[in-house]
Task: structure prediction
Amino acid sequence: MANSAGPGAGATGMLACMSIPQHVTKAHATGNDFVVYLDREGRFEPTEEEVRFLADRHFGIGGDGLIRLAHPRDVSDLSAEQIADCEAHGAEWFMDYRNADGSLAEMCGNGTRAITLFAQREGLFEGDVFRLGTRAGVKTLTSLGKVAGLGEHVFRVDMGAWKRGKTDAYEVTIPGTPGAARGTFVDMGNPHVVAVIEDAFSTLPTVEALDLVTKPVVAPAIESDQNVEFVRIDDIDDDADDLGEATMRVNERGCGETLSCGTGLCATAVTLRAKTGVDHWLITVRGGTLRVDVSDTDVTLTGDATIVGDVTLTR
Result:
């Protein structure tokens, strides 16, 4: 599929001198969407301005972020230790992920699935297992194919270790929206605060009624900006192998509300486990349903990915 993305006003000059390739691809993983491309020779590291242009939904292609798939040695911000870690764990390729505002991101769980489907299409690995470098360490993805209830191109991602702070230690509010909820800090390689609402401790509206265009406020303030998840527990079935169901929405730093957030889903499951003792969760976001499995040491995320089409940029 070939499309043409023409520039908006004032963008013609930038297109002419872009440091990204002329051909890129649009992909998404449960509605978390990305502009992605392969940089085999390490020649196309994007600038912040280019990322903002391509992610713009009016003048560019549109996306929650941009993913450049490159060799670790060709990613300029990586340390020698990070490059050596990729080599030690057999990760030939690195997910150079940028938020829609051009800022670097440590990790994107949905992005790992989208870029792995892209790498699979490009013939960059054989078999069902792909080891991918990220700024939060090497992640292992397993292709499961079609899975009922989850999608056509499903991948299971070993998201690695998690760290959780004290349960309900933060107050979460949304400017202009009455009420508040209690939030729990979870580190998934990037920072999250998860607020369980529609319970006795929350006075915020329902999940569906929240205004997540407005950035939530977390108090006391965390040193770095964070993603904020709002979740409702829908069901816990004691007869279904320790399985719970929940609904989640998220405001991601650097891009606002997204239809899905992989690390946010993991942080949510970690928080729900702390509150309920349930290890396995089916979590519905605006972009679909995913499965998250939590143990004492790590988290796995299972969900779909889709290639939308290939795009030729007009120079």
In short: The chain is about 15% helix and 45% strand. The domain at 163-297 is CATH 3.10.310.10 (Diaminopimelate Epimerase; Chain A, domain 1).
